[in-house]
Design brief:
Blueprint lengths: L2 H14 L34 H4 L12 E3 L17 H11 L5 E5 L6 H7 L5 E6 L5 H8 L5 H10 L4 E6 L2 H4 L1 H14 L4 E4 L18 H11 L7 E4 L12 E2 L4 H4 L7 E5 L7 H10 L4 E6 L2 E6 L10 E2 L6 H10 L4 E6 H10 L6 E5 L16 H7 L8 E4 L17 H7 L2 E4 L1
Parallel strand pairs: 1-2, 2-3, 3-4, 4-5, 5-6, 12-13, 12-14, 14-15
Antiparallel strand pairs: 7-11, 8-9, 9-10
């Protein structure tokens, strides 16, 4: 690992508590983002890391936070963790160093055989996030390029009592709606704690014949609303395209403290210990941070009072669609001036507009021109996107920019500095 990659690796660990272990992958997914990247994008890859290479590095992990393996949240490409032949040794090393810290592994599930699951059962607490997509071997071949029998794998996991959640990229024009429903129903009865449905994302560089380009988002949303009403497992749509910040729950994880408190899907959280949550994310975080939180709940026309019996920092098990982190609003209110322009992604604009409706703040939704396609998230915005969007804006002296679009050196995905905006627009820039 060269010095630059080492530096980025340490940042991934210390900033996000993410421990990359390999960039290799055994799938060839139609929706793989790495195959749709525009030229000029900085991406980094790593070989299979050995325990000896991580002995000192894992000291940068925070034992108070979940350790994440296999989640692509940095510029290091994350592959299939179980392709690393040293993964179980790394897990035992982590467990020795952090005896009680949760470890989360995101995987496609193709390598979760009896031997692997047996070893995983000895490094608990560990949870799996499994990219399922479809349980049909025929459609798995079409979508993922591999036909591994995921149904048997999921049943095995349940027998080892290893908690897992699952995700699906909705591609109904390949599988049909009935196969998508069959997959979700199977996950519901097999023990997935949460099921997530993702919109298929594509960029300007996605092949024009790739079916991810042609998914009708409104049809997916309608299907989601219908299917979530007939299953017990919380079903989450990402991104959810919400039009309010009302903290309505998608239901409790079966067997969780919130489930034991008899909270139901569709309940609105009016207050938590006397505090009125400002959003779904606000309610989720506050519930997890409190010991035995007392709730006022609205269920249809009835007001219900209940207590979730749990430790401080323990998950309540209550799930919500992701809307807006209250801390972002507080930062904007604190940092704004009379001439501020707040930059937001297309996805976040509606939520910010609702949250700041009583504030004299200008919002500027910025298109992801660099990536194109249907990309509309702040993490993939670039300096060029900002410069293009502000070219015709009324005069401003202050820009508030989303921190997620920059790395620790305030460089974007193309390596351009935030200072380029300052120099080009002649304004002050702050990061939120």
């Amino acid at each position: 690992m060269d010095n630059y990659l080492y530096y980025k690796y340490i940042h991934s660990i210390s900033q996000f508590n993410i421990l990359p272990v390999t960039s290799k992958c055994n799938f060839h997914c139609l929706f793989c983002s790495h195959k749709q990247n525009p030229p000029g994008l900085e991406i980094l890859t790593i070989d299979d890391l050995k325990p000896s290479e991580l002995e000192d590095i894992i000291d940068f992990l925070d034992r108070e936070k979940k350790i994440v393996i296999g989640e692509s949240a940095t510029r290091i490409i994350e592959g299939e963790p179980f392709l690393n032949p040293y993964l179980t040794d790394i897990l035992f090393m982590l467990r020795k160093k952090f005896p009680s810290t949760d470890v989360q592994i995101t995987t496609n599930g193709s390598l979760l055989n009896e031997n692997t699951l047996e070893k995983l059962s000895h490094v608990k607490p560990v949870e799996l996030h499994i990219s399922v997509n479809t349980i049909s071997e025929k459609y798995r071949q079409k979508i993922l390029g591999l036909t591994a029998n995921i149904k048997n794998t999921l049943e095995r996991i349940s027998s080892y009592k290893i908690p897992f959640s699952s995700s699906i990229i909705a591609l109904p024009q390949i599988t049909g709606w009935s196969e998508l429903e069959k997959t979700i129903t199977f996950l519901d009865i097999t023990g997935s704690e949460v099921i997530k449905i993702f919109w298929p994302s594509f960029t300007e560089y996605t092949d024009e014949h790739n079916p991810v380009r042609y998914v009708n988002l409104h049809e997916v949303q309608d299907f989601y609303k219908q299917i979530k009403s007939v299953i017990k497992t919380p079903l989450l749509l990402e991104p959810p395209l919400l039009d309010d910040l009302t903290p309505v729950t998608e239901g409790p994880v079966p067997g969780s403290p919130a489930d034991m408190a008899a909270i139901k899907k569709g309940d609105e959280i009016l207050s938590i210990g006397g505090y009125r949550p400002q959003s779904r994310v606000d309610a989720f975080c506050r519930l997890n941070n409190l010991e035995n939180p007392i709730l006022d709940i609205k269920r249809k026309e009835e007001i219900i009072y209940c207590t979730i019996i749990k430790h401080k920092g323990e998950k309540s098990g209550l799930t919500f669609l992701y809307d807006l982190d209250r801390s972002v609003i507080e930062k904007i209110k604190c940092m704004k001036t009379d001439d501020s322009l707040v930059v937001t992604s297309g996805l976040a604009f509606n939520m910010l507009d609702i949250a700041l409706k009583n504030e004299d703040i200008r919002l500027l939704p910025v298109k992801n021109v660099f990536f194109g396609g249907n990309i509309a998230c702040a993490g993939l915005l670039t300096v060029d996107d900002i410069l293009l969007a502000t070219e015709e804006e009324k005069p401003f002296s202050h820009l508030l920019l989303p921190s997620i679009m920059f790395d620790e050196n305030l460089l974007d995905l193309k390596g351009r500095s935030c200072r380029d905006i300052v120099n080009t627009r002649g304004c002050k820039c702050d990061i939120i």
